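Exercise 7.
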Amino acid sequence: MADAGADAHRIVRAVLDRSPRTSAEELGIRSLETPSGLVRLFVLAMLMSARIRAAVAEDAARALFRQRWTTARALAATSWDERARVLDQAGYARYDERTWTILGEDAELLLDRYRGDLRRLRDAADRDPRAERHLLKELKGIGDVGVDIFFREAQRSWGELRVDLDDAYDDVRDAA
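Solution. The predicted structure, written as tokens, is:
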């Protein structure tokens, strides 16, 4: 297994050399220990899971965050027209106007169920990734791809989401 560990280390090093920062870090989301950081990550994951270029989704997220719409409460307080204007100016409009509605509805749902704090979703799921996936998918506009994006970013704070590299290496080796 020592060789497998060395191989896994080389793979991780190559990935980090190519992409040293996560998407969340690129957007200035430094802490996933706060309600705001997690809501921003959720918004980013939702926008990135659409069939659009990642750069367009990131620009749209940046535009929302520049408005200080970084919490469920702040997003819920916006109007459809305000969300539409900001996303339109960010270049997101031609993709899916439905997103403007979903952002408001999800913000309301986050407030109603989790008091705007996705850490409460994690607690409700007893830190079980399958249950967390199920609860996240109850929000509109996020499916498996969006949850995968959220999990990829959240794993640095949510330990239950971390991938065991030895198991991942074995899976890849066995598939070859």
